[in-house]
DNA sequence: ACGGTCAACTTGTATT
DNA sequence: AATACAAGTTGACCGT
């Protein structure tokens, strides 16, 4: 749990996480916010720019000292080219080993920690999207099942209203000796399914046959 | 002004 | 113990 005001000051944990080397955008089609972006990146220039893939902690502390330790690191925006390469890499593998991470970091002029963070966030985004899609699918399923449930219920009502003759009651031993194809009970109305050929029974027979992994129940 | 996006962060857990 | 990752959070930035 991140505590406001304590963020990143406790950088004792794991990684150094310091603003990346600044980037002059090579994206070109920046649009409106580009001037701000350049300013931000210029600010980043004041940050440690060197360190070939190495992390260092001291300077973050220094940067914080300057304004009383309350400053959060200026936000980096990856350039379009960086994002493109990261996405391309992500398409190939969703996880990187340290070697791949380092190589990609060098290629992108980022720290390997930044590449790592990007992949973590990217995986998280993918998962969120998948979950959303799954949710939509389940909603649709729920809708159609509800609809079918209503339809079946009204069908049952109609059948009851028709006063269908009572089912033929057979002694248990007789039932056992009969082939299953000639003895299939509909669990809804508990009538022998061959007695009527409504769509209700047809649906049930189809379901039943699918559930037990056979062909259509006659 | 406000909500969405996203890089960077913290924390907890699994694996080696 | 070290490492990697997921989950959740934060805050800067951006479009409206």
UniProtKB/TrEMBL annotation:
GO molecular function: DNA-binding transcription factor activity, RNA polymerase II-specific; sequence-specific DNA binding
Family according to the record: Belongs to the HD-ZIP homeobox family. Class II subfamily.
Record carries keyword Methyltransferase: no
Keyword DNA-binding: yes
Pfam families (UniProt xref): HALZ, Homeodomain
Superkingdom of source: Eukaryota
Acidic residues: compositionally biased ranges: 53-65
Upper lineage: Eukaryota, Viridiplantae, Streptophyta, Embryophyta, Tracheophyta
Biased composition (Low complexity): 8-23
Region entry Disordered, spans: 1-75
Protein name per Swiss-Prot or TrEMBL: Homeobox-leucine zipper protein HOX3-like
Cell compartment(s), UniProt: Nucleus
Domain Homeobox: 69-129
